[in-house]
Amino acid sequence: MNDATRVTRAGLPAAAQGEPFLPGPTFAGTYHLSGDPASAAYTYGRYGNPTWTGYENAITELEGGAATVVFSSGMAAISATLGTTLKAGDVLVMPSDAYSSARLLASGYFAGLGVEVRLAPTAGNAQQAHLQGARLLWIESPSNPGLEVADIALLAEAAHAAGALVAVDSTTPTCLGQQALALGADFSFSSDTKATTGHSDLILGHVAVRDAAWADKLHAWRRQMGSVPGPMEVWLAHRSLATLHLRLERQCNNALAIAGFLASRAEVRGLRYPGLPGDPAHPIASRQMKFCGPVLCFSLASQEQAERFLQHCELVFEATSFGGIHTTAERRARGFSGSLHPPLRQRSVRSPSSCTGSWRE
Ligand SMILES: *Cc1c(COP(=O)(O)O)cnc(C)c1O
C-alpha cells in the first residue's frame, strides 16, 4: 500500500456493520470497573483512552515502529523522552541549533539535575565528535528554523557504537517525509501541532519507538507526570492524518516553488530549503527524506525591508508555527541577540502546502 492510501486507513478498527470508519472521541474520566479491574482495557482517563490508542496505532504503522505514545504537546513528548532516558551524570548531545524550547529544557532543567549537555551544530554532522560517553544523542533534522540537515544513519551508527541511544525530531518533514526509525533512531519524535495534523487548531506530540520496552517507560511517565492529551485533540489529529500525504505533497511543492522564486531575487540572502537543488543540505536530504517539509528560511538586508516584505504579502499570515493550511511567515531574528530591539534580518516563510518556512516556537 502506498503512503497516500495508508494514511486514509491507519489505525482504523476492523470494519463492523453499522459502525463508523473512525469512531468518535471517547470522553471519559473513568470507566466501569466491576470486579477485577485487570479485565478492563481502560480504567481511568489519565491511564488510557481508546481515542489515544487509535491514534497511536495509526502513528506506529506510519512510523514503522513497535509502539507510539501520544502526549499533550510536542514539549511534553520531549520531556518524556529526556526524562525516561537520562539521569544525573548522564551525557546528552543536542544540536546547538535545535528548537529553542527543547534546547532550553536540556540546558536549563536537565542540566540543573546533573545531566551534562553537549551542544554542537546540526550542519556537517558536528554532533558526531561529542558522542563519547553519551547516553542520548538528540538529532533535529531538518533543524528549525535554520533548515540544516544531519546524516541520521551516519550519526545513529556512530551513537550506537558509542553506546548511546538516538532520538530524532522529525517535526518539519513528519513521519511521511522522514522515517527516523528505519534510519536507525530508537525514538522518533514529532510535534503533531505542525504539519502532521496541519490545521493550526491543536497542540499535540508523539514519540514512536523501535523497542516496545521504551513505550512502557513513556506510558509510566505520562501517567505519573499527567502530560495527557485531550480526547478531542487526539481525535482531530487522527481524522487529519487521512489528508497528511495530500497536504504534505502540496506543501512541499509550494515550498519548492517559493524557494525557486526567492532564489532568483537579488535581495534574498541565506535562502535555505533542503528540497532546493543547490542547497548545501540537498544531497543528504534527497537521500534520507521523501518530503523535505513545509519550512524555508531566508534573510533580507534590514528589519525595515523584512517588514515591508511581510506587509506586502497578501496571502501570508504573520504567525509563529508552521505546517497548517495557511501560508505563514515570521521574522525570526526578533529577540535574537538578547536585545529587545535587535536589528533584525532573518525572516522565514512557512508555506502551508509545502515544505517551507522557518521559525522556531
Ligand atoms: C513546535 C516544535 C516543537 C515543540 O512542539 P509543541 O507541540 O509546540 O510543544 C519541537 N520541535 C520542533 C522542531 C518544533 O517545530
In short:
34% of the residues lie in helices and 15% in strands.
How would the blueprint of this fold be written?
Layout: H1 3-9, H2 50-63, E1 67-71, H3 74-85, E2 91-95, H4 100-112, E3 116-120, E4 136-140, H5 152-161, E5 165-169, H6 174-177, E6 187-191, E7 205-209, H7 212-225, H8 231-241, H9 244-263, E8 269-272, H10 282-288, E9 295-299, H11 303-311, E10 317-318, E11 328-330, E12 346-350
The protein binds pyridoxal-5'-phosphate.
Residues 73-75, 99, 102, 140, 144, 169, 171, 191, 193-194, 203, 205 line the site of pyridoxal-5'-phosphate.
Characteristic terms for this protein:
single chain; 361 residues; alpha/beta; Aspartate Aminotransferase, domain 2; Aspartate Aminotransferase, domain 1; 2 domains; 7-stranded mixed beta sheet; 5-stranded mixed beta sheet; 12 strands; 34% helix; disordered C terminus; binds pyridoxal-5'-phosphate
Report on this structure.
This protein has about 350 residues and is of the alpha/beta class. The protein folds into two domains: about 5-240, Aspartate Aminotransferase, domain 2; about 245-345, Alpha-Beta Complex (Aspartate Aminotransferase, domain 1), CATH 3.90.1150.10. The chain is built from eleven helices and twelve strands. The chain has helices spanning about 5-10, 50-65, 75-85, 100-110, 150-160, 175, 210-225, 230-240, 245-265, 280-290, 305-310; strands at about 65-70, 90-95, 115-120, 135-140, 165-170, 185-190, 205-210, 270, 295-300, 315-320, 330, 345-350. The model is unreliable at about 335-345 and about 350-360 (pLDDT under 50). The protein binds pyridoxal-5'-phosphate. Pyridoxal-5'-phosphate binds near residues 140, 191 and 205.
